[in-house]
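for the recovery benchmark. tokens below, seq after
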């Protein structure tokens, strides 16, 4: 009996990693992944419970799949299974409100989910045998539907949980204490991904700078040294670094190793000391400025990404303008903004001075507007330059690629139009995702750049 499985992943790259692991476990157990939810026997949703928008998105998706399941009742064989952060936080409510849900798990419960599905598979097999049906679809997309595993990039989770106590964040209560993935496991997974053709390994965790600290084992810098020694043409990108834990040793490795993209993502959340203290964040405005200057001095080509929260309780106009000045002074290459979301059970939800939504909106718009100009200016600095680009997607009219300056899914991209393609014969074959080509930038926009391929990259 072949059982087809469809996994929907919502939320952050950490969830993408979990779904990727799960998908590989399912493949090893003989389940068939499918891209279309309508074709699947088992519908799995990996949910996000981080902020209100993300929760709504997860609930909408569960409801959409519940509809698909209902329509198919009669045959009645689809199972709807929900797991991840939202399921952990609001499990009882979800099951009560959406009776179509057949199973529900929190985080780090892959083992149980697989076991449950194996049981379903056996039962479905027995039912199918009884009905003399059980025909399988020949069009199942076995290779392309595996989340988290594409030929151009893959997320690699190096730790789970978080020991920091940011007062706005539900993650520690959902994901638990910080636990590093053993270095042998990270290296084994990295090797497997590189062997399967992945060109960029994106290291993620709630806080990758704490890697190895709870066991006094390997550090992130030591892990990176081992990773770059693995054979193959690949890059490493680092996301989610905690500002006060970025060491000189780590910066040295990033600066020295060609396989590490010169790109650092440091969510700072705010710049003003009083707000940082209320947020439970370590470090001060002065320390952050010193850190960012130090990074730019040591690695001049570095792309700096950060995220901020606007409308944190008690944030005054003065605090907000302090943040705007900070952004203007640093001129981050990439910047994301979140509007403060009052999360049940977090200390900051109880703070006095909650900021009205319309004020949050205005502050959000102001920063995004200013950042669009800074980002455009930064992108213009690339015009006329030739850089290696990893190809993510090739379709009829356009090729989507990325330089070291673009993290997939969160930053812009390099758009290569058909008329920018090189003469036939100058590349070794038709382009495909995962190829690395040399691209010259011909134009810049707020978030993307336009380029033309000028040839293959020589190693
Ligand atoms: S570092 Fe802070 S914001 Fe990030 S996961 Fe940990 S508690 Fe949450």
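predicted aa per position
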């Amino acid at each position: 009996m072949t059982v087809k499985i469809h996994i929907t992943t919502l939320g952050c790259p950490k969830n993408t990693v979990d779904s990727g692991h799960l998908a590989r476990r399912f493949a090893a157990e003989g389940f068939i992944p499918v891209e279309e939810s309508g074709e699947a026997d088992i519908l799995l949703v990996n949910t996000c419970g981080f902020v209100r928008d993300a929760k709504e998105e997860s609930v909408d998706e569960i409801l959409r799949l519940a509809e698909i399941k209902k329509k198919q009742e009669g045959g009645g064989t689809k199972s709807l299974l929900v797991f991840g952060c939202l399921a952990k936080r609001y499990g009882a409510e979800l099951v009560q409100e959406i009776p179509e849900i057949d199973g529900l798990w929190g985080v780090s419960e892959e083992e149980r989910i697989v076991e449950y599905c194996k049981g379903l598979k056996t039962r479905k097999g027995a039912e199918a045998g009884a009905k003399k049906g059980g025909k399988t679809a020949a069009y199942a997309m076995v290779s392309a539907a595996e989340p988290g595993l594409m030929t151009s990039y893959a997320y690699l989770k190096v730790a789970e949980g978080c020991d920091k106590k940011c007062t706005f964040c539900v993650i520690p209560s959902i994901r638990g204490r910080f636990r590093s993935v053993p270095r042998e496991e990270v290296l084994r997974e990295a090797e497997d991904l590189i062997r399967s053709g992945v060109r960029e390994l994106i290291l993620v965790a709630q806080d990758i700078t704490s890697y190895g600290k709870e066991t006094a084992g390997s550090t992130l810098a030591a892990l990176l040294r081992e990773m770059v020694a693995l054979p193959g043409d690949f890059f490493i990108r680092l996301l989610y670094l905690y500002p006060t834990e970025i060491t000189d040793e780590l910066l040295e490795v990033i600066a020295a190793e060609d396989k590490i993209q010169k790109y650092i993502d440091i969510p700072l959340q705010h710049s003003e000391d009083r707000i940082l203290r209320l947020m439970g964040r370590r470090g001060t405005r002065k320390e952050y400025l010193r850190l960012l200057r130090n990074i730019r001095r040591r690695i001049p080509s570095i792309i700096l990404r950060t995220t901020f929260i606007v409308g944190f309780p008690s944030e005054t106009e003065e605090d907000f303008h302090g943040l705007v000045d900070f952004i203007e002074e640093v001129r981050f290459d990439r910047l994301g903004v979140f509007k403060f979301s009052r999360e049940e059970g977090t200390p900051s939800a109880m703070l006095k001075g909650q900021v009205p939504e319309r004020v949050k909106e205005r502050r959000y718009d102001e920063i995004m507007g200013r950042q669009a100009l800074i980002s455009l200016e930064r992108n213009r600095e690339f015009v006329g330059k030739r850089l290696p680009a990893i190809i993510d997607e090739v379709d009829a009219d356009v090729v989507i690629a990325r330089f070291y300056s673009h993290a997939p899914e969160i930053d812009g991209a390099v758009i290569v139009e058909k008329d920018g393609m090189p003469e036939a014969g100058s590349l070794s074959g038709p382009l495909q995702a995962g190829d690395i080509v040399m691209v010259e930038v011909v134009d810049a926009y707020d978030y993307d750049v336009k380029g033309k391929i000028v040839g293959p990259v020589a190693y």
